[in-house]
Structures are given as C-alpha cells and as structure tokens.
Amino acid sequence: MRKSTGLRAAVVAALLGLAAALAGPAGSAGAAEPAPAHTVGDVTGFDADGPVYRLHAGKAQARVSFVSDRTFRIELAPDGKFTDPTGKDIVLPQGAPPRTHWKDAGDAYELATGKVTLRAFKAPLRFELRRADGSLVWSEAKGLSWDGDSTTQTLARGGDEQFYGAGMQNGRGNTSHRGHTVEVGVDDNWDDGGHPNSVPFYLSTAGYGVFRNTYAPNTYAFHDPVTATAKERRFDAYYFAGPSAKDVIGQYTTLTGKPFLPPLYGLEIGDSDCYLHNANRGERHTLDALKVADLYTQHDMPNGWMLVNDGYGCGYEHLAEASKGLGERKMKLGLWTEDGLDKLADQVKAGQRVAKLDVAWVGDGYKHALDGCKDAYRGIEDNSDARGFTWAPESWAGAQRCGVQWSGDQKGTWDYIRWQIPTYAGASMSGLAYTTGDVDGIFGGSPRTYVRDLEWKSFLPAMMTMDGWADSDKQPFRRGEPYTSISRKYLKLKESLLPYMYSYAAQATGTGVGPVRPLSLEYPDDPKAGSDAAKYEFLSGEDFLVAPVYQDTETRDGIYLPKGTWVDYWSGRTYRGPVTVNGYHAPLDTLPLFVKAGASVPMWPGITSYQDRTAASPLAWDVYPQGRSSFTLYEDDGVTRAHRDGAFATQRVDVAAPKSGAGDVRIRVGASRGTFHGKQTSRPYAFTVHTGDAPRGVRLAGRQLPRLHSAAAFEAAGEGWYHDPSDRAGVVKVKTASRATDRAFSLVLKGASAVGGK
Description:
By secondary structure, this protein is an alpha+beta fold.
C-alpha cells in the first residue's frame, strides 16, 4: 500500500545496508591488506584444439575460443582453473564454430579465421586483434592483470577512437564515453549519474565491441590507455569485430539474445496505480481501476494496459473480473510483484499480460534480476497465447530478450527531462531496445513538465504513467486544459505511428538495433553526432529527429541536424544539414520534430487503440520524396506468438523522386508477402505527399485519378487527389478505393517535385 515513499526507500536501504554489512566497514581495524597486483607473464606453453587455444604463462592460463569468424572469447585463470559463474544464463547456444588456423610467427602465436587474426605475443603474453587485411582493431597496452578481487584489461586508445555502451547510463550514453569513467552494476540510483539496467558491454568506433561474461560489477575508464575492470579474480570476455556499430550490436545480441518483439499494446501508453486499500487516495478496490479506464475513454485518450497494484503492500482482488472489464475497454491487465512469481501462472490464467518486477523483487540484481525477467516472461507465455512482456529497474546483459528496462523512481522536473534524453538512446548502443521512464516521474511534477515530458516520450516505444505517489495523479487527463488536449494530441500521434514503430521493433528482433537511436549510430562519420552538440536529441527510427524542450521556455536552441534535408513536421519548412538551429519557436504544444527527406512513414490514421482497426481500415503513407528511398512495413496479429512460426507479412514501398526541384514522384507499393490471422486481404490506401506544388495530374495503376478542389470534397470522395497549399508548405493528398494487398500498384504524381517544392 502506498502510504508514503518511505516503504520503497526502506526496501532499498535494507538491501544496501545488507550489502554494506556483508562487505564490512571501510577502513575497519583488522581489515586485510589489498592483494598486490599481478600482470600475466611470458608464455610457457601452447595447445591448439580446433577453434580453442590454450596459452600457459606459468601458473596462469589463458584460453581463446572462436564462436564465429568475427566473434571470439578470451578467458584468463590466474590460478590455472577456469570457472564460468554465468553458465548458460546469458550466452545463448551458438552455431558450429568457424574453421580456424594458427601459426607460430616467432614473437607471437597467430590465431585466425578468414576475417580476423588474434595475435598472442609471447614475452610477455599480450593480445592484439587485426583484420584479415592486416589493419589494427585493438591492441593491449600491457598484458591482462589482476589483484585480490579484480581483473583488468588495458587497451591502447586510438587518436580519435570513441566509446559507447555500458547499458543504461542516466544522463549520458548517446554521446561518446571517451575521457570518462563508466560504472556497470547495481546502484539503485535512479537519478542523473546513476546506472540502472547497466550492461557489461561496450563498443568502439575502431570497429569492435567487448562483452564481459560475468555477474560482477565493472568499471570502464576510457582514458589513455583504456582500462576495463571486473570485480572478480577471473577474466572472461567476448570480442566482436565489425565494420560498424550496428554490426557489432548485432553480433553481441546474437550471442546474448535479440530484443523481444512486444505486443502492440506494449507500444501503447500504460497506466499504473494501487487500487486495493490505498491510504494516499482513500479506500478503494481493484475494480475501481475500471473507473479510471473509463476516464481514458471519456477523454478520448489512448491507453493500452493498466497495472492495478503497486507491489508495495498493495494487493488485488477480483482479478479475472478486472481483466474482463479492462478487455472490454480495449486494455490489458498488468501486475507488479515484490514477493516472487509463485502465483504468476494463476494470475496469467486470470488475464494478466504485463509483469513488472520492482526493487524488492530483483534484490541485488545481476542473476536474480535476469532470472526474474526470464521467469516472468516465460510465465506469461506458458499460461497464455500472449507474448511475454515485463518491466524491470535493475536488469543485466540478456534482459533485452525478455523485457522493457525502466529507469526507476524520479521526480518530475525540468532537469529530469534533460538528463533522460541521452539515457534511452544511449542504452540502444548496448542492445537494449525498449528503455523508458515514467511520464513526469512519480514524485512532484507540474502541468508544464508533464506535457513536455509526454511529448517526447511518445516517440519512445514504451511509456507509462505511475500514479499514487505524488500530490496529483499522473494520468494524462488530470491537469485540465490546455494540458489534456496537448497530451491527447501526442498520444494519438503515437497511436497513428504504431505501424512505423512496430516495423522497427520487428527489425530489432533481427538486428539487435532498437528503434531509439543516438545520432552517432546513423551518422558515424559526423564528429558532432557523438558530441555534446547532439546530446539532447535522438532519432526515433531513422526518419524522425526529436529535440525535446527541457527548460521552461518556448524557444529551443542548439538543435543539430546532420547531413541531409530535414523537414519540420509541423510547418513543412526544410533545413539542409549539417546545421544547428537556434531560436526554434516551440510553444507548449509543440515538440521540435523533424523528418528526414526521403522518408515514407506508414500510419494508422484516426485510432485510439490498435484494436480500433478493422478489415476495411486504411493504411496511410506519409511521404517526403527526395531521390530514391524505401520502407518495409511489418505486420502480424500483434498479440500472439504465431509470428515466430512465420505468421507475418511485409510490404515494401519504394519512392523515386527528384533529388531537388521539379519532376515526377513515383511511389510503388509492393505486394504484401506472407500471411497471418486477421490479415487484410484488401484495404484502401491514403497518401500524404510533401511536394510543395500541385502536380499536373496523379495516376493510379496507369489511370488518371480525379482532382478534387476542396478538403470537403476530398473527404467525401471514395478516390481522388487534392492539393492543399496551406498544409505544411503544401501537400498532395491521395486516397484509393480498397485494393487487394497481394498485388503491387504504382502511384505517379506527374510534374510534382521533391520535398520543398519546385
């Protein structure tokens, strides 16, 4: 029961106090002297066994195991005895190892695949990685070292080498870690500088990544040289060599698991509160959650799911009835846990579809947290036909395959908005595809911070409001006007963009790269993209650049737009990057939002829930023509696991347009390939084409479409096109009658132009 914030604080304090008691007081009398540091010595023996190689250095032993032609593992046992505390928890079974070969090169042993060569220098033992063409990837500045409780790798740092990763690092991560020290481990610090949901993985722009296969805390100091330390007297790391950060993230997530594909309701906003005997809100019962669900409906607000207990003394009753009632309101039931997962099977059978694991459950994090994530995910799937969907505040490597990582308890302030912006995009660099924080925090807050926070979080895949801990509840309709209307505007935009976001979510299950991205991931050759110039902005997919307002102002300065043409989503004004935009006018209802020229964005117009879609619903495409571009839409039933057995479909749209100025715009909508339950066999299409000027005519599948001369006429027509010069610097709107989805068709705007006009 949420009597006060003190209960959660007490739980955290108890956990931290227990850890301190086990560790003993710092500097206490009789404390053991720290063990002296050692560095591995000369190679005294070498054994080769296929893709596994052993190097002896006196009592110490090193082992190199190749996983693929660009992924391998280095272990060091100072006492010669290899151990593996993570077992099969994190690293998934991999395919057959690659063919390898080795040779004695005199001063070093060379262990090679067709792609990379790992050199093991003999005197002393020191490793260096090179590509097949001989170019250097990384080199140890000295051999692996250890003391009484930790092991360290020391790498030479390149002149312009940049570093990313380490999971969720509050207040940073989307810009380079170069010159900084990054901690990886459980600290229960939800504020700026904390590192909940951290991951012992980092990547370098030199073309490699490193994953420390451990449950121990890590410290990465990205100075010169770079030192990477784990608090355990064993060394165990996997290395990935690749041409790009995306490739390295892909290799890492091949090893530890691709991000899961959330259900569609998981990409809608969620609501959380305590309803059973809530001292902060008066006597209530679980079924009172349905009254709040009705308020979403009455205010024409999207909401995908509700957590009806808070896990801190607040239980539940009438669970099946609550689930049925939420289902009738197009919402799913979720529950927190603080006391284990023993009841999960019965809860899922009663209708639970979201499981939130909080501090009291994940305890010291690490293995406990990862096991909880996996068990809750599996518990949903073992007892229903739904996909597992969990949230956790302290996870570990591998949790990307079973849940959303949530940054913990914060207070709604302007500074909270500021430091959260780099946090979630930065986490994507460690394969965490779904990271988020509560809208306006759970404490404090204000109407203005609420809507500003909700605006930009609508472009994250996952988002949630948490109620009952602040003076005012946090649902998006609580603050009155104009705040309710602003919240509705962005939540409905989020709903309409579900096919765009869902396509990127499906892409993440294949590539490991999440939808929310730092600019440096898409523009690796732009030095400003990884600098503070781009710290307070991010990409949602490849096409939307989001630059939140994080101060109590209506002017946004310092918006960095990288190379390319960028279109203001609201006004249609174009900018040619690279450029820094200052003085951007952003009244309270305006999120600075830009679309990359060439984008084709799939949309579901006019919905408040994904369940509003019918067999006759249109698919809309928002097209910003410039040169040649494409987008592949992904669709499945959105809820069940049938997609894992191939029940899904893709449909590609290709656009050919002038690079600038006048010319025809050709849009080819390919056939939808694949099938799933509920797939539309036919549907109408709508297009909004940002061309500026009116075309001479529009042809659909070779025939001329009628031109309509008013918005009302266009709305009433079953098919046709309309040029609206007052809409975002001029758009052409096109609608078609229902068309079979298994057949391709083309749309040609004759005498139109690239985005920006003629």
